[in-house]
Amino acid sequence: MSNSSFQYPPMFDFPPFFTRQVTESTWKSQVMQWENLILAYTRQKHIFRLDLHQATTPGGNEIFENKKINRRLSFETLQDIIEEMARKGTAEWEGGSKGPKTEALIYWHTPEDWANLIWNWINETGQNNQIVTYYEIAHGELAEGQEFFELDKAILSKALNILVKRGNAQIFKGTDEDSMGVKFFGPL
Question: What's the rounded Cα separation, in Å, for the pair 169 and 183?
Answer without folding.
Answer: 5
